[in-house]
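User: When convenient, might I ask for sequence and structure tokens for a protein?

AI:
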Amino acid sequence: MPTPPPQAKNPPHRRLPDWLRRPLPVSPTFAKTQTLLSELGLHTVCESAKCPNHWECWSQGTATFMIAGDRCTRACSFCAVSVAKPFPLEPDEPDRIAKATARMKLRHVVITAVARDDLADGGSDHFARTITAIRKQNSGTVIEILTPDFNEKSTALQRVLETQPDIFNHNLETIRRLTPQVRSRATYDRSLQILRKVKELASYPVVTKSGIMLGLGEERREILQTMDDLRAAQCDILTMGQYLQPTTCHLPVADFIPPETFDELGEQAKAKGFQHVASGPMVRSSYHAAEFRLPTTEASWARIGPYSNRTRVGAHSKAARHRISWWSEQ
């Protein structure tokens, strides 16, 4: 019998297994990252979503920027981002993101956003303006975006794709059976359709990406089926990580998945045809995102999937070759 979805009613405290316990890094870069983000008035998903890799990433001079505010219009039961009426968009935020990218010397930047169902376009124009601003100041930076579903509006997707982000990430989050308990308003099939539409609408070789959390009560066969569903939607990159309960008000952890199981699932995902797979207990959507290398040849782009016009093959491949710590030269 499938494991029933966990309930979030005062679950008993579960001790973290050893493989999820890591010492906090001690680095002056953490404080410098924090100061810069504060100075520019920027939000990060690292803080807002209580990411367990927060200390590590900031200590390495990297962060995932969260645009369109820090108030979400959806109350997903796994997510720690605040749910409240959002504030109006800040017109100068794209420029501030671009400045931070330049000052941090990021060669691979990840931009995400809260769901903005209060906006007619779901915030897609704000994404596009941010991508444009980053490109203007950081021409060689690989731009990865992690978007909400924009209520599956093709016009919203087209607006974002006009600015040609290198990697388009939209997370499936969990298996089909658990989606109603885990996600608010989003659906499993809608998210798959978003990934399909991105490939159909893009006029350039965009790389698509998605991620799922494990430890919510899913079974291996359901995970493998989810991989098949993502590949059928032409998803190129897959991330899999351990779900960790951010507060006692969120869904509790059903299972702690051992590292060797993540390794096995990662190998199975690669065998199914994903171009890149990150699978491990501490993996998150943007964790070590720059380790993926954009294809540099026509043959390698051909494996990514169909698109109507190869206009930017390898355009940013040099920029994707490695991450650079923005304080390494100071």
Q: What stands out?
A: The radius of gyration is 19 Å. Strands lie at 43-44, 64-67, 71-72, 82-83, 108-113, 142-146, 167-169, 207-214, 237-242, 276-279. Confidence is low (pLDDT under 50) at residues 307-330.
